[in-house]
Amino acid sequence: MEKIVTLIPSATEIVAFLGKKNLIVGRSHECDYPKDLNKIKKLTSPKINVDGTSREIHNQITEILENSLSVYKVDVSELKKLNPDVVVTQAHCEVCAVSFSEVEEIVANHLNKNTKIISLQPNTLDDVFDDIKRVAKGLNIDEITTKNLIKPLEERVEKIKIKSLKKTRKTIACIEWIDPLMAAGNWIPEMVKISGGEDIFGKSGKDSHWVKFDEIQKHNPEIIIFLPCGYNIEKTKNEVKNLFIQQNKWSELNAFINKEVYIVDGNQFFNRPGPRLVESLEIFVEIIHPELFNFNHNQTGWINFFN
Question: Do residues 168 and 49 lie in contact, with contact meaning Cβ atoms separated by under 8 Å?
């Protein structure tokens, strides 16, 4: 039986989705889903204080990346003991997990020469499905089994697309970081479109980017959704409260006046490019077109800021 190490939460979720969770022998410190991973060794730790505000975290990350490849440390000695056959990591974002080049160096210098690295690099929803197929192939899962696992996910996406695209599009601002403000990119604009919305800042398949409040004010979106990476609902709501206090012009926006400001669990859902992006899509459509769908994610996956 192959031994697998997963160095990013989406990798753990994909491996579990493919029915190989029992082969995972090591994981990142952020891998917390599925829930029963406590006995699996944590192999990474952050070099920053993750309990700080979004501004404090941003400043720490900026400083570290000026002098280092990665925001995370790897327990190389423990990794050597585990001696995995497969390491699943990512080459998408230097802030999300251990840098890909560092993983390559560690594997080359400390592990068996036959250790296989599978790297995730999603930019769109289709890329996420392709990553699942790539991991499945790397774990020697046959194509028919993989296709049968992915098909229900694709059907859920298509069901939402068919119903929501007939509706009038609402303008949406998806905020991936709070201080400084960042507009979400990659798969998020595509998911907004599938949900029947128009993402006014993000470009499908393109990186997230910094945005000024003046730009948000200029476009005056009908709906604002906060989904910061690594933040749960409670932490996000507290920071958004402070944001609105510090910059009172938010209260002049249509989304604020009409109570269309939403907080979602950006940690568990939107920023983990794995199977649960379909649940993230369901959250989007519940917010954007509640008259169409109710998947019962309210209060667990999202809340209205004013409730």
Answer: no
